[in-house]
C-alpha cells in the first residue's frame, strides 16, 4: 500500500538541514503529522532500529520497541564492561612483557658494558713451576702484567698459596729464608704439624709477598720451598699424585688504577707486610693461568713389601744397636 503526501514538503536550506540532522540525533524521532497511524508506527520502528544500530551494534528480534530498547541498553552496558576488561588485560599483559624484557636485557647490558671496560685492560698472566727432584721441591710463581710497571710502583702483590695435605712447608725454614732476604713468606695455618703423614694432616695456607723480577720489567715472582709427606702404601701402583691448585692473587695500591677496576673481584683482609702487623684491604684479582693446576708425582711403597721391609728394618736396627754397645764397652771409660 503506497501512501502519498497531501502536500509536497518544502526543500529546506542549509540551516533547515542542520536542524533536521540535530533533531535526528536526539532521543525522539521527528514528528510526522502528515502520516497515518500505521505509517507513523512503521517509521518509529525504523527510527528505533537505526538508533539501536548507532548506539550499540546488536541485532534485536523483539517486535516491542520498549523491550527492545531495554535489551539494547543492557547489552551495550555489558559490552562496555567486557571492552574495559579486555583493555585492562591487554595493558597488564604489555606491562608484564615489558618488565620481563627489561629484566632479561639488564644483565646482558651490564655484561656488555663490563666486557667493554675489560676489553681495554690487559690480562694478568700467572705461571706456576716446580723445580728440583726428590722429596724436597721449590715452587716458583711468576705474575706478568700487560701494562708498564712504572704505573704500579705504589702497588704490592701478595700470593695466597694453598698447600695440599700431601705437601708441607717448614715454618722454621721460612724464618731462616726471611732472615737471609731470599723470600718473604708466612704460615697462617694453626695447629700445623710437619711430622704428620698425609692421611693425618690438613691443608695449610701460606702468604708470599711477591717481588719484582729483575729480568722482566712488568713481572713479579715468588719463591716457596715445599716438601713431600709420607703416604700410605698402595696395593698396585707405586706412585700417587698431588695437585697444587692455583693461588689467590691479591693486590694493594695506594691509589686507584684501571687494572683494579678491570680485574678486582672482592676485598680480602691480610697483613700489609711482614714487618708490621697492620691489616690492609687487598683486592682479589682475576687472572689467566698458563697451567690449570700443577700435578706432582710422589713414589709410595707397596703393601706386598710390608713383611720384607719390616724384617730388614728390624735386622738393621738390631745390628746397629749391637755395634754401638760393643764400641761403648770397648772404648768407653767407666768410673764407679
UniProtKB/TrEMBL annotation:
Any one Gene Ontology BP term: GPI anchor biosynthetic process
Pathway: Glycolipid biosynthesis; glycosylphosphatidylinositol-anchor biosynthesis
Membrane topology term: Single-pass membrane protein
Keywords annotated in UniProt: Endoplasmic reticulum, Glycoprotein, GPI-anchor biosynthesis, Membrane, Transmembrane, Transmembrane helix
Entry's Gene Ontology cellular component terms: endoplasmic reticulum membrane
Subcellular location as annotated: Endoplasmic reticulum membrane
Region (Disordered): 1-42
Main location: endoplasmic reticulum
Described function: Stabilizing subunit of the glycosylphosphatidylinositol-mannosyltransferase I complex which catalyzes the transfer of the first mannose, via an alpha-1,4 bond from a dolichol-phosphate-mannose (Dol-P-Man) to the glucosaminyl acyl phosphatidylinositol (GlcN-(acyl)PI) intermediate to generate alpha-D-Man-(1->4)-alpha-D-GlcN-(1->6)-(1-radyl,2-acyl-sn-glycero-3-phospho)-2-acyl-inositol and participates in the sixth step of the glycosylphosphatidylinositol-anchor biosynthesis. Probably acts by stabilizing the mannosyltransferase PIGM.
Origin species: Diceros bicornis minor (South-central black rhinoceros)
Matches recorded under Pfam families: PIG-X
Taxonomy, superkingdom: Eukaryota
Transmembrane segments: 74-98, 302-329
Protein name: Phosphatidylinositol-glycan biosynthesis class X protein
Family stated for the protein in its record: Belongs to the PIGX family.
